[in-house]
Amino acid sequence: MKRKLLLFSVICLFFAQAAIAQNLIKGVVKDTKGVGIPGVSVSVANSKKATVTDFEGKYSIPAAADATLTFTYLGYISQNADVAGKTQLDITLQEDSKTLGEVVVTAIGIKQQKKKIGYATQEVKLDVLSESKTMNIGNALSGQVAGLTVNNPTGMFQAPGFSLRGKNPLIVINGVPVETDFFDVSGDNIANINVLKGTTASALYGSRGKNGAILITTKNAEKDGLEININTNNMVTAGFTVFPETQTEYGNGSNGKYEFWDGEDGGISDGDMIWGPKFQPGVKIAQWNSPIRNKQTGETIQWYGNVKGTIYDDKSKYERVPTDWVRHDNLNDFLRPGIVTNNDFSVAYKGAKAQFYASGKYSFQRGQVPNTSLTTGGMNFNSSFNLTSNLQLDATLSYNKVSSPNYPRYGYGPKNHMYTILIWMGDDVNGKDLRDHMYVPGMEGYRQANYNYAWYNNPYFASEELTQATDRNVLNAQAKLRWQVTPELSLQARASGRENKSFDNMKSPKSYMNYGDSRNGDYKMWNNSQMNVDLDFLASYNKEISKDLNFTLNAGASTFNRDIQQEYASSDGLIVPFVYSLNNTQGPVQATNYLEQKSIRSVYGSANFDLFNAVYLNVTGRNDWSSTLAKENRSYFYPSASLSTMVSDYIKMPKALDYLKLYTSWAKVSNDLAPYSISSTYTKDVTYGSTPSVTYPNGIINPNINPEKSTSNEVGLSTSLVKKVGLEFTYYNVIDENQIIDLSTSEASGFKTRKVNGNKYKTQGLEIMANYSAVKSQNFSWDIAANWSTSVKKLTEIYNNQAKFGDLKLNERADSFYGTVWQKSATGEVILDPNTGLPTRDNFNVNLGHSDPSWRLGLQNKFMIKGFDVNIDIDGAWGGVMRSVTIEKMWWGGKHPSSVEFRDAEYAAGKAIYIPEGVVITGGELKRDVNGNVLSDTRTYKKNTTAVNWQTWSQIYPYQARVTEEENKKFANVFDRSFFKLRRISVGYDLAKVIKMGSLKSVHLSAYSYNPLMWKKMPLLDPDYGNDDNLQDPSARFIGFSLSVKL
Questions:
Q1: CA-to-CA dists, residue 592 to 314, 589, 595, angstroms
Q2: Is residue 375 exposed (0-12), middle (13-18) or buried (19+ Cβ within 10 Å)?
Q3: What pLDDT is stored for residue 633 in this prediction?
């Protein structure tokens, strides 16, 4: 019996142990940010059992209930965890400060440790998205990334412009390239933004990613259980960071005289300009809002605007009654306080089998321009399902809406309120009367009441009566199925679609004035749709050959299809005012439609080799077939290679040096053409104003055009000192060749240009990123992050070895700013005509500098003071030149602050008294070659003594040619574009730390200011916009608060 009991016990113990051995332990290994870490070694202590985590950080391994698992990964502190009978064991690894263990998302969604990446990338700190929210999250990227330039327009519904190392980057959301202006992207749903800077970084995206990429990953549930977040962010304008200064002493007119009759020069200088009488007590002048008086009976009637077509249009019988000539602050009166409010909520849930994240957003902006507003909003749903232990389905669906019942019109022309008020409307005009009386009495719907009828609009009439509306609906859907076939092999298939539909219309009232618009009123409508479909497949294989060799292979294929449809229709004048319909057209309806299709088929692959846990080699290759190229040129291949090494892992470094990483990369990419660029087609046209005709393109099409090519090289260094200072340096060199250019040709051929491959450009740049933990204590900390970048692009080869390409000469900067200048002596003095005293324009354009800044800087400061978080962000640029069209026009129109200088004296003298500084030629000759180079100069001079009418000089010298500050500071219209802007300052505190609020986990309240201060060299305007070839709204300062509640 004892033997039987002993045998039974042994058998039970054996089966129990066998059962225990068959327990399958699963889990996810993440970093401190909650991102899964691929390639982590997972082993059972005191056994040979081991595995590695997949690309999502997931693992599974058989182990006994009382076993201990060991998790190791270079760059992280190794960790042991007891199974203790569990079947789910999630681990968070802490980063080892001596190495770079951070995991980042790279091309086509592949995750890699930062230490293994052989090219420059940079992540954006997301706190810039949670505070001081504008309607466009792109503004928040200003100054955050070395090499990324963000040009910020000042007006409502104007999208920021992006330039990454001088080129337009690709925008990628959840691994799929998209075309967006960021108004239809919700910043509240963003979990991560990573900028891939070089050609190598985005080579796997093909031609679309040849200029680098901004990768955006949206949120999903991160923590087990249910989590709810509610956020509100509200701000209002509080004055202006930059407000244009104008002269305030003189009103409309010319040479000191003005009298209104019809606003079309029917009175005295009432058709244009602000060179009129001075504002003085007791001065009375007939104006646009003056009453009309019957000369015979003395009877008066209140009137606004001109009298054309009425019984009062008779100067022999009627006159305008002179009224007080006083100044009005029209721009300040016109602009109202702007308001921006952002509200969103999110619900996240994570369980053993699935995780969900749902969110909603509503944002509203009341524009500073009357009757303008913008609304954005949408819903987002992200989900992930563990269908089986090794099969995962991710699904994403989002809908975003952008709508505006009316938004301002910008650009140079009478459609722009700044064009009218800032430059061409004198302060004598009573803006409040323009607001309260928008139509001529008795002509409602037919003629606006205005101070001018030759060139400009009543700005209130333009903002209230003309409306341009937009309604955009963007739908994104994505599904990704991932199969972990073995611990080493995974297969992934993904499908995504993005539909962007928009309807825009513009209702233009009768008498509205703008270049290209009918003064009889119009109704225009645009119906646009775009559908992008991306399909891709990716196979990944990871294998640890030995402790000194690990490799990962990725291979995939993709297809991209884009369909664009555009429909446009317009009336030809309105029959009945206020009825905006195509049926209410005076002439035939004008209509066009357009269809564009494009397809790209691709195969690609990459191989990563980890050698001795210290050297990391990555090679990639991609081949595209584009429908936009001729069949014989349709295929093009792009290779890339990168190498990084942790030098500090195999060479002993000084104690102060925490780690040292070196990296280098090389890549070659090509790009295709816009659809139908190699085909010539006739288009419908009108000749001599009314004769139907067809036209042929004015450029010769080259069906054998080849793709452009870019070759890049990059080297970098990353290090950390005394666990407080982090530094990264990147130098890059990019060769752009085989450029597609439109070359001028003899018009005798019947064409103006021909398309050829030619020119070569070389770009060299340096980027520096630094972070410094300045102070760390229990109640106070101060962390500083800085980035600095510079780049120069030069023309190194010209097509057919020609001497110039446009104005550019060989080896000149591609951003060289050439402009028309005044003729000057050999010593730089302006040459004046001895009879008129006026300057003469030079026949050759002159290089006045470079348009891009010499360097850019971003500086972020983060303080923690006894629980309060304080953020101060500064960014700016140094060097470069910028032409100001606004300042040129202010001189011509008479609004420039310095234009008042000689008016009183000249009007009192009754003759010209201003003697310009300059010289007149007394003899000799100047000889030049065909490029303007001086061959000989024997001219002699004497000082100018001829007086010039001050108004005439002001409308010619600073207006009709470019004047630098070096030439004449007073009359300059080309300026140094250097500036530094305090972009954001915020103070926040989590109220839940001091007040118990039930189940609320966090209640974070912050107050902030956006764009509060600015230093700049350029007068009057904000150079942050980029260029002043368009008239800007004043740069507004915002103050606001945000409240974030987490349940």
A1: 46, 10, 11
A2: middle
A3: 82
What is the tens place of the pLDDT at every residue in 386-404?
999 899 999 999 999 999 9
Rounded average pLDDT over 276-305:
96
Q: Which two tokens stand for residue 752?
A: 């103006």
The answer on pLDDT for 743 being more than 90 is no
pLDDT at 676: 86
- Cβ-count burial of 165 within 10 angstroms (0-12 exposed, 13-18 middle, 19+ buried)? buried
Q: 739-746: long-range contacts at Cβ-Cβ below 8 A with a sequence spacing of 24 or more?
A: 739/708, 740/673, 740/705, 740/708, 741/799, 741/805, 742/699, 743/799, 745/700
| Residue 740 near residue 708, CB atoms below 8 Å | yes
* Model confidence at 934: pLDDT above 80: yes
What are the pLDDT digits (tens) for 211-261? 889 999 998 888 888 999 999 999 999 999 999 999 999 999 999 999 999
pLDDT at 17 over 50: no
* 884 SS3 class: strand
Asked if the model's pLDDT at residue 793 lies above 60, the reply is yes
DSSP class per residue in 334-395: H----EEEEEEEEEEEE-SSEEEEEEEEEEEEE-SSTT-EEEEEEEEEEEEEEEETTEEEEE
State the first-to-last Cα distance of the chain, in angstroms, to the nearest integer: 64
- Cα dihedral 172, 178, 180, 183 sign: negative
Q: What are phi and psi of 836, to 5 degrees?
A: -100, -20
What residues does 637 pair with on adjacent strands? 623
> Quick one: what percent of the chain has pLDDT higher than 90?
69
pLDDT single digits (tens) 36-89: 887 788 888 877 788 888 767 889 899 988 889 998 875 677 888 999 888 899
For 29, what's the count of Cα atoms within 13 Å in the CB-facing half-sphere? 31
CA distance 436 to 460: 9
C-alpha 296/C-alpha 307 separation (Å) is 18
* DSSP letters spanning 292-304: EEETTT--EE---
For tokens 């039987």, the residue is: 4
Question: What dihedral angle (degrees, nearest 10) is formed by the CA atoms of 135, 868, 1046, 392?
Answer: 80
893's tokens: 């129109």
Q: From CA 1047, how far away is CA 1045, in angstroms rounded?
A: 7
In this prediction, residues 324-333 reach a mean pLDDT of 96
> What distance in Å separates the CA atoms of residue 297 and residue 846, rounded to the nearest whole number?
64
Residues 379, 362 contacting (CB under 8 angstroms): no
Q: Name the token pair of 602.
A: 């691709």
For β-strands 590-611 and 615-626, DSSP reports them as antiparallel
pLDDT in tens, 844-872: 999 999 999 999 999 999 999 998 999 99
Higher pLDDT, residue 931 or 913: 913
pLDDT at 452: 94
| CB of 292 closer than 8 Å to CB of 318 | yes
Q: Angle at Cα 113 formed by Cα 111 and Cα 115, nearest 5°? A: 145
Q: Which residue's entry shows tokens 């001529």?
A: 440
Given a contact cutoff of 8 angstroms between Cβ atoms, the answer to whether 868 and 1007 are in contact is: no
CB 956 within 8 A of CB 891: no
Angle at 722 between CA 716 and CA 724, to 5 degrees: 80
Of 646, 645, 644, 642, nearest to 618 by C-alpha is 642
Residues recorded for the chain:
1047
Rounded distance between C-alpha atoms, residue 583 and residue 574, angstroms: 9
Rounded to whole angstroms, how far apart are CA atoms 791 and 44? 52
pLDDT at 526 over 60: yes
- The arithmetic mean of pLDDT across residues 561-570, rounded, is 96
Q: Is the pLDDT of residue 1039 over 70?
A: yes
